[in-house]
């Protein structure tokens, strides 16, 4: 087990949604699991005026996100957690001189024996990341002579390649790359990490994991919700920036990468960068036209309930051209993946919430059984990231009786069957990793830039070309019908059910 040293966690943007909804509940889980270090303090900062107690009430004692976790727990046990929270306001501006903050950090360090180790968590609007890093640097709060200093940066990492580079170099002026942890919460998901294990701990898959056996790869990320209260942010972002550039390309990099030489952070991250750099960048407008589809949900009714269209959401422009659906077909230019198409889609207001990877294997070269080409056209490996996390393999079995009728059956594994095992939430896992100095599941600057390199031309094509269609789709359907054109001729989009266990498969007994 890795050691977690005494440390201070300073959260910038501590009055915000992310702190209350994700960070503090994750810290609480670590507290309950006794995974926090012996001496551990949280110092929240933002522009709001609050006392330590008001901050404790806000994010712990009165927090609606923690309430269900606190029920049935002893008061002094909960207070043991909340008393480690402190607050310092930044005097109305993040551009203020950080002398007072420095003094508070030193006082807490001395009083609670934190050994000079500090994580700075940037959870403010992204425009403030660079100014905060600079202010910290100006007063020497980045200095590692007396204890390590790390920075966790929230997404988005830039708005395009240029701004991502600016952000990277702005942060690197004050912190070394090894001190910077760019959080991508999908990498904290157990099933995303399991992609590495599936591939590199099983001799049965890796020999088949290439163009000789794989017909195409499909990745679906669907959410049933709309933009909820984040319309203002989302309208400046869109599906491609919000999900595809980061979470989905991270998943793609794990599917595409070559075997790393070991499990050290840089071994894995080096291979991921190579994978991202091998995605074929599409710049030809004809290719972009036939390989990309965007859409926007429109007002509709589901089971009698009226659902707002995207342009009617709060904070969204009435004539918005921001996509809530994106489907991209692309190729990977390397030895392993030549000519294997990848189909990746992400969207809001879909019939269900689901994220899955489907590896479609090639059909047998020669069909000897009557209907094997119909019902057992291909073997599929379905890696369900969420919900109902697990893996399902589709394979052909003989239907009992005369002749050789073939049906598809399911071989499956579900994480829920590991009843005794506590599956950590993504933020919890990632916070603990950073506390222990493990950057494996964090994105490196060159990964982020390689992902933008691929995404930038698509955005430019969509936003600067006059005749690019924005297809409308009703909430609760699997996106615009035109998305089928992308995959036509090779197959069809799999429309997954909410539970992998409900995936239809041949069953002799039932
Ligand atoms: N919420 C989420 O689910 C996710 C959020 N993120 C990222 O995390 C970061 C924080 O998100 P979230 O907590 O939702 O954001 P909020 O808007 O809820 O909180 C932002 C925080 O920054 C402070 N702030 C400072 N300057 C400004 C300003 N000029 N305008 C508005 N707020 C300001 C706010 O407090 P005060 O006004 O007191 O200073 C507040 O504490 C963002 O970069 C976001 O992209 C990433 C993934 C998911
Ligand atoms: O980063 C983001 O992710 C969420 C979806 O996360 P999940 O873990 O619930 O799948 C998405 O709703 C949000 O728009 C995006 O910013």
From TrEMBL:
Q: Which Pfam families match?
A: G6PD_C, G6PD_N
- Stated name of the protein: Glucose-6-phosphate 1-dehydrogenase
Family under the similarity heading: Belongs to the glucose-6-phosphate dehydrogenase family.
Which Enzyme Commission number(s) are on file for it?
1.1.1.49
This protein's record includes keyword Nucleotide-binding: no
Q: Describe the location of the Glucose-6-phosphate dehydrogenase C-terminal domain by residue ranges.
A: 196-491
The catalytic site is made up of: 247 (proton acceptor)
Q: Which reaction does it catalyse?
A: D-glucose 6-phosphate + NADP(+) = 6-phospho-D-glucono-1,5-lactone + NADPH + H(+)
Q: Binding of NADP(+): at which residues?
A: 47, 155
GO biological process terms on file: glucose metabolic process; pentose-phosphate shunt, oxidative branch
Checking InterPro entries in the record gives: G6P_DH, G6P_DH_AS, G6P_DH_C, G6P_DH_NAD-bd, NAD(P)-bd_dom_sf
Known pathway: Carbohydrate degradation; pentose phosphate pathway; D-ribulose 5-phosphate from D-glucose 6-phosphate (oxidative stage): step 1/3
Biological function: Catalyzes the oxidation of glucose 6-phosphate to 6-phosphogluconolactone.
Keyword terms = Carbohydrate metabolism, Glucose metabolism, NADP, Oxidoreductase
The record's GO molecular-function terms, alphabetically, read: glucose-6-phosphate dehydrogenase activity; NADP binding
Q: Where is the Glucose-6-phosphate dehydrogenase NAD-binding domain?
A: 10-194
PROSITE patterns annotated for this entry?
G6P_DEHYDROGENASE
**Species in which this protein is naturally found:** Croceitalea dokdonensis DOKDO 023
Chain sites annotated for binding substrate: 185, 189, 223, 242, 348, 353
GO cellular component annotations of the record = cytosol
Q: Which gene encodes it?
A: zwf
